[in-house]
Structures are given as structure tokens and as C-alpha cells.
Amino acid sequence: MNDFSKLPEAESLSAANKRIRNILKKSEEQLAQRADPSLFQDDAERTLANKLDELTPQAKPLFERGEYTQGLKILAGLKEPVDHFFDQVMVMTDDTTVRNNRLTLLKQLEGLFLSVADISRLQTQEGHK
Fold first, then answer.
1. CA distance 45 to 17
2. CB hemisphere CA count around 34 (13 angstroms)
3. How far apart are CA 127 and CA 121, in angstroms?
4. How far apart are CA 73 and CA 103, in angstroms?
5. Using one digit for the tens of pLDDT, what is the confidence trace for 88-118?
6. Residue 24, by phi and psi: left (phi above 0), alpha (psi -120 to 50) or beta?
7. How far is CA 116 from the centre of its chain?
8. Is this prediction's pTM over 0.85?
9. CB proximity list for 59: less than 8 A, separation 6 or greater
10. Which helix (H) or strand (E) is 44 found in, with range?
11. How confident is the model at residue 58 (pLDDT cuts 50, 70, 90)?
12. Which DSSP helix (H) or strand (E) runs through 24?
């Protein structure tokens, strides 16, 4: 974990995870297991979903084997698509179907983060060292 916190992407991903958790806490909707790509309206949604689909099968087996540093280094590849998503996409849009699909995408991302640890805590821990 310490190696991950030294990566330039660590702070950004930690902050994104915290932001995702805060957004998801505000939603009381029943969300699907997977986002529906046909409902994406922005390239940033598609890019994030594609990167998530690409990296999840690479990272999860590493986490399951306890190879957290390697898995987290793979997750570092999400930094740019996550940042771009939050810069370009209004998650809490008025269109309920689109909003819930975006929330589902964030829930998938959170699930991947939580499969190893609550990486939002790294931001807090690093600040206290």
C-alpha cells in the first residue's frame, strides 16, 4: 500500500474514491449491477467504462492473491478517465435513467476500489504523516 501512496496518481484516485462515496451516499435509488453503455451520453462515460472493463480483470486477481501493490498500480491507470469523467459529466442530471446509469458506473468503480481497501483513507493517512 505504501508503494501505491507514492504514485503520482494515488492522491487523485483517493480523492476520487472519496467523492464517489459522497455522491453514492446521497442516492437512495436501487442501482443495477452494471452500467448500460447504450445510455452513455458523453465520451467521458464511455472512456471510463471501457477503462474499468479493461483494468478490472487485471487488478481483481492480484487483489485476491494479496498482491495489492501491483493491483493498485494497475488502478492508477484509472486516474485520467476518472478525472475527465468528473470534469465533463454532470452525474446528478435531471434525467433519472441517465443519472442512475452514471451512479451505477460510479458504484462499479467504488466496488473495484473497495475490493482492495478504502483508498480514500490513504489521502487522510498521508496528510497525517
1. 16
2. 8
3. 10
4. 25
5. 999 999 999 999 999 999 999 998 888 765 4
6. alpha
7. 12
8. no
9. 71, 72, 74, 75, 112, 115, 116
10. helix 43-64
11. very high
12. helix 8-26
The span from the CA of 113 to the CA of 14, in Å, is 9
**Cβ contact 109:78 at 8 Å:** yes
Count CB neighbours of 82 within 10 A: 26
Apex CA 33: angle with CA 93 and CA 21, to 5°? 55
SS3 120: helix
Q: Which three cell numbers stand for residue 92?
A: 446528478
Residue corresponding to grid cell 442512475: 100
125 grid coordinates: 493517512
Q: Cell numbers for 96, please give them.
A: 433519472
